[in-house]
Design brief:
heterodimer; A: alpha+beta; Butyryl-Coa Dehydrogenase, subunit A, domain 1; Butyryl-CoA Dehydrogenase, subunit A, domain 2; Butyryl-CoA Dehydrogenase, subunit A, domain 3; four-stranded mixed sheet; four-stranded antiparallel sheet; 13 helices; B: alpha+beta; 3 domains; eight-stranded mixed sheet; two-stranded antiparallel sheet; 10 helices; binds flavin-adenine dinucleotide
Chain lengths: ~375, ~325
């Protein structure tokens, strides 16, 4: 299906079902409410087939270009119908699991995920392995029919809602760095997994500390090769920076447009306000343009790689500038008010501070650009 | 870095342009040789693509050819020729350079070196929202003698009053708004070409220059400066490229502003990486840096455009969704 027709049909369907798809809560809602509504929206899209396009038939998709997935998320975010964060996990994890997991495993486990019936999470970071992910120590010992995992993870987003986790574990010698890492697809209800949610500074329980105490994972849940987990992790990153970013960019566009409307309503026509808005818009457009190029490269079958670090830096700057402009121009709303609108600005403002941290920090992205794109040789 | 122009024939033209620009660095000669190479025909056949090709080459080669006159004239629907020049808006502005006051017209603008060859100047006179085009005999225009920071390029101020009846109204097919957009996109490509040259120069210096027994390229502070320049370059280049398929005036203003910002950031960072040698007259860097300052001010700058764009958004009360998949 061509993208223009697809978008038209999707828009018509979203208009026709606007009432059922609108969040039943006011403002941002609690995390439980958000997750429940996200599942409803995802399920409705799937049942109406829109949520199946762009996914291969092997996982019950209807095929077609990944651009179709970008469009679905864009429309949902422009209309503010569901929080983009849980959606991110699908776009980040499902494509790689489809590419690297055993076909029968992907065929069985991926459909409920893209249907919105299940949530998955990503267990990469550890207390002592953040930016230096390759130093992770959570161990998996090989047994006859699988693996026994012991260790600790941290910052695992959405695990309290998740059925499965894409987990990176150490299978090589300690110190084997990226050569001795394996990826496993683990059931979160496996015996031996416990977690305690961590409260974020914006007052939510986005992520958790997770303990793995002799957790058995069967062989069939290997993703990629034994000791081939680094390749799996590297495959995930570009996905994280293509479709997902396009979705988030749409959310940022909606919030920017909200900001323009609110500043206009306040009657602030100063050059200071205009300049801050113009600057934020310009950064957003630079990101959107770059991201569009990336979507088209992905849709054209090109392998995305380290150049997506540029997309990551651009969206991070755009997000930070947008919400700094909101804080500057809304006259203390972020600091002093508690009404629903203020709470949304405050949440978004605070959450924007995570943008240069998650998915590889701002500094790590610049290291990658310097080493891989500018070819500056090794760092001292 | 992404290649801005892909088509084979454009690549061929580009190398022709660049060779001509290198051979004839002075304003007049360069214009003539580009006309000989088919610049006017290219602009006629493919205005956006043609301007992007030529202006990228201008930026990279740092040539002083005055092609902006042709881009504006062509967008207005006037036949381009070496005999025609254009009065540009004053620095940092994108509004018409002339205003009517009773029987006189007040001109505050800039002209390129094309003025010296041309007999006719195109002068846009503001009329509230837009502008109307007129022509004026160049003999009547008294250009400032001041050559400024970048004498090589020879953009100079034109600040004077002239009798209204010295101007001949000109029926144009294109609007002033479209001419501004075309100029902004072309200049964005020139800025990107210059930024690319400065970044390449700084990168090579960082790799070659050894201090504390290692290349300075190995220091993270240096790496991050260069990385930041590349990121801004790529964001701006993508928007400038997008303008080739989308004539939206807002997108053109954004492209110019982003390109100015990327080029200015790159100039600052490249200068710091080059350090002492980059502060000399002997090293070529200063020529590109000064050209960046000049081009940034034409048709709205990285400093003035964001506020202008913001004012437009505020009067609309919402933000348009530019850039579609
Ligand atoms: C909201 C949120 C959600 C997250 N969700 C998940 C998730 O679902 N799953 C998951 O596995 N992880 C998740 N993370 C974790 C995230 O990936 C890490 O926080 C990130 O990789 C950085 O690690 P760190 O926090 O340990 O910082 P550190 O690596 O300790 O970094 C500290 C500081 O040092 C800098 N630094 C480190 N190394 C270098 C270097 N070589 N050069 C220059 N500077 C350097 C960093 O940039 C940073 O400024 C999430 C984080 C956040 C904030």
């Amino acid at each position: 299906m061509d993208t223009a027709t697809f978008r038209r049909e999707l828009e018509a369907w979203l208009d026709a079902n606007a009432e059922e798809l609108a969040p039943p809560y006011e403002g941002a809602g609690s995390m439980d409410e958000q997750m429940a509504h996200y599942s409803r929206v995802k399920r409705a899209l799937y049942d109406a087939d829109f949520g199946r396009y762009g996914w291969p038939e092997s996982v019950n998709g209807l095929g077609g270009s990944p651009l179709l997935r970008a469009i679905v998320g864009e429309e949902i975010n422009l209309r503010g119908l569901a929080d983009p964060s849980p959606w991110t996990m699908i776009e980040v994890l499902a494509p790689t699991v489809i590419d690297f997991a055993r076909p029968e495993i992907a065929a069985r486990l991926v459909p409920p995920f893209i249907r919105g019936d299940e949530m998955w999470c990503q267990g990469f970071s550890e207390p002592d392995a953040g930016s230096d992910l390759a130093s992770l120590t959570c161990r998996a010992a090989k047994t006859e029919d699988g693996w026994v995992v012991s260790g600790q993870k941290i910052w695992t987003s959405f695990i309290q809602y998740a059925q499965r986790c894409v987990l990176l574990v150490r299978t090589g010698e300690p110190g084997s760095a990226h050569r001795g890492i394996t990826a496993l697809l683990v059931d979160v209800d496996s015996p031996g997994i416990t977690f305690s949610p961590i409260e974020t500074m914006h007052g939510r329980h986005d992520f958790a500390e997770v303990y793995y105490d002799e957790v058995f994972v069967p062989n069939e849940r290997l993703i990629g090769e034994e000791n081939g987990g680094w390749q799996v992790a590297m495959d995930i990153l570009p996905y994280e920076r293509s479709t997902t970013f396009w979705h988030r960019g749409a959310l940022l566009h909606r919030r920017f447009s909200d900001l323009v409307a609110e500043v206009a309503a306040l009657g602030d026509r100063s050059d200071t306000a205009a300049k801050a808005l113009g600057q934020a818009f310009q950064s957003l457009v630079a990101f959107r343009s770059r991201s569009r190029d990336t979507q088209h490269r992905l849709a054209g079958g090109q392998q995305l790689g380290v150049e997506t670090s540029i997309d990551k830096i651009l969206i991070t700057s755009a997000e930070l500038e947008l919400f700094e402009a909101a804080r500057d121009l809304l006259g203390g709303v972020v600091e002093f008010d508690d009404d629903l609108d203020a709470a949304m600005w405050r949440t978004d403002y605070l959450y924007s501070k995570a943008a240069p941290i998650y998915g590889g920090t701002a500094e790590i992205q610049r290291n990658i650009v310097a080493r891989r794109l500018l070819d500056l040789g090794p760092e001292s | 870095m992404s290649e801005l122009i892909e088509a084979d024939d454009l690549a061929l033209l580009t190398s022709g342009f660049e060779a001509a620009m290198a051979e004839a660095p002075g304003p007049g000669e360069a214009d003539q040789s580009l006309y000989d190479l088919g610049w006017a025909e290219l602009l006629d056949a493919a205005p956006a693509q043609g301007a992007a090709t030529a202006f990228s080459a201008l930026g990279r080669s740092n040539s002083a050819a005055s092609l902006l006159d042709d881009v504006v004239a062509n967008a207005l629907g006037i036949a381009v020729s070496l005999d025609t020049c254009v009065v540009f808006p004053s620095p940092h502005k994108a509004t018409a350079p002339a205003q009517r006051r009773g029987d006189t017209v007040v001109i505050e603008g800039l002209v390129s070196a094309r003025l010296e060859m041309a007999n006719t100047a195109v002068l846009a006179v503001g009329n509230g929202e837009g502008a109307v085009a007129t022509t004026v005999d160049t003999a009547l225009l008294h250009v400032s003698a001041a050559k400024g920071v970048d004498p090589g390029h020879a953009y100079r101020r034109l600040s004077m009053e002239i009798a209204a009846d010295a101007l001949t109204p000109l029926a144009t097919r294109g609007t002033w708004e479209a001419a501004v957009a075309a100029a902004q996109v072309a200049l964005a490509h020139q800025l990107m070409g210059g930024a690319r040259w400065m970044l390449a120069e700084a990168r090579q210096h960082a790799i070659d220059r050894v201090q504390f027994s290692r290349p300075v390229a190995s220091f993270q502070a240096i790496r991050h400066k260069l990385a930041e320049s590349l990121v801004q370059f790529e964001g701006a280049a993508s928007v400038a490229q997008g303008c080739l398929h989308d004539p939206d005036p807002l997108l053109a203003a954004l492209a110019k502003s982003l390109a100015g910002q990327a080029a200015l950031t790159t100039a600052t960072n490249a200068q710091q990486v080059l350090a002492g040698i980059g502060f000399t007259a002997e090293h070529q860097f200063h020529r590109w840096m000064k050209r960046t300052l000049v081009i940034d001010t034409l048709f709205g700058s990285a400093n003035s455009l964001p506020a202008e764009i913001g004012h437009n958004l505020l009067s609309e009360g919402s933000a348009p969704r530019l850039i579609q998949l």
